[in-house]
Write a structure and sequence with these properties.
It is a multi-pass membrane protein. This is Sugar transferase. GO terms for molecular function: phosphotransferase activity, for other substituted phosphate groups. The chain has about 475 residues and is of the alpha/beta class. Helix content is about 55%, strand content about 10%. The protein has 16 helices and eleven strands. It has a seven-stranded mixed beta sheet, with helices on both faces. A hairpin with a 5-residue loop joins strand 8 (about 315-320) and strand 9 (about 330-335). Helix 1 (about 1-30) crosses helix 3 (about 45-65).
Amino acid sequence: MLKLKRYREVIFTSILDFLIVLASWFVFHSFYPNTMNILIQDFNLDFISGGIIISFYWLAIFVVMGSYKKLYLVSRLDEFIKVLKASVLGALILYFIININESISISEQRMIIITYWATIFVLLALNRFIVRTIQKYYAQRGKGLHRTVIIGTGQTAKAAYDDLNRNKILGMQVLGFIQVNGKAPDPETGITEEDVIGNLDQIKEILEERQVQDILVALEPDRRQDLVDVISKVDAPEISLKLLPDFYQLVSGLSKTNQIFGMPLVEISPEPMPLWEKTIKRAFDIIVSAVVLLLTFPFLILIGLAVRLTSPGPAIYRQRRVGRNGKIFTIYKFRTMLDNAEKHSGPTWAKKDDPRVTKLGYWLRKLRVDEVPQFINVLKGDMSLVGPRPERPHFVEQFSKQIPLYTRRLRVRPGITGWAQVKWKYDASLDDVKEKTKFDLFYIENASLRMDAKILINTMITVIKGKGQ
């Protein structure tokens, strides 16, 4: 239900965009009928099918450029800039496609693409302006607001509640307050016990039962130590989490805030990588994995035979791991330990000079060759080349209780290698896991293709130097 509400605006906006782009095709054709006929005939298309295909082309451009992210009560100026960026990119790509046709002069090509771009841009910008204006009109009258809970029961929380009630344009309908410290609210704040709908330990049940869409964290300045615990317990990807900063956080410049009609909010976003980068990242994962598996296939057969001959047991070790959004998948590795190594001990960490590791397994680990079968997981989409290492369900459950924000690692696909792997050693204790979690969280908040490239280069250097364990 929440996902449907979340994507309703995206579906509505994308359908409108499709119809606008299709209308632009007909409008533009009235100016350049002969030229457009030549272009679509090059691809053996009739006029109608050509218009439909190019409309889907524009939708793809809008998706890649992030035009459908954060549509709820977005600033009309921001909407204008989004449309401008997407339309310019789409027009430039079409310009190079038109250049293939030698029957059209260069000057005419430029005029065609400028006129078509202007038609698309004007109609789309006008459409978005009208839709956002109507959306704000209804929000001012308390319609279509996001269901919101406020975490905190102090003066800051009450001030936020009053501000949201006075300014419906902020787009939030407050359902109630969530207690953090378990104490009854101070009567001086104006918050009664009836206004409190639960405590922080009940947050998951409250979010599900009340179909919450936004969470506003409004803690008192002297309760900052509770912030990590709050963020850890409200880790819900489909729900927008916003933090109301205090004066010192604002003037320090340490927090990036969004000015939403006079109310400064820090939006905690776990996925800074834009869609076009994520698309390239996934395409790179597929290409590299396919190439590696094809080129190394004969060697993988030989390694598998060597594992079978040097110690009893299967060549490929299969194990259940926790992937993106908590999905369980089976990971593949060359077996480097004795068969059933954890039969009597249960799940345990690998350690330096581990007696369970076979002689061949030692060298496979040293050169990271034991990880190669995981390229199959990358092809299947369970993993990526770069990301936090996937952990077993037993340890995920354990670490989630002991390490704040640990579950935020599950926001992205796990990887064969990651920032924590190139910056920290293998896990040997809970303290090691805590340190690696810091690196994993840093990666998630700063993920980019550039950072992925840096991690892959460092990993290759580690492999060449034989520093694996």
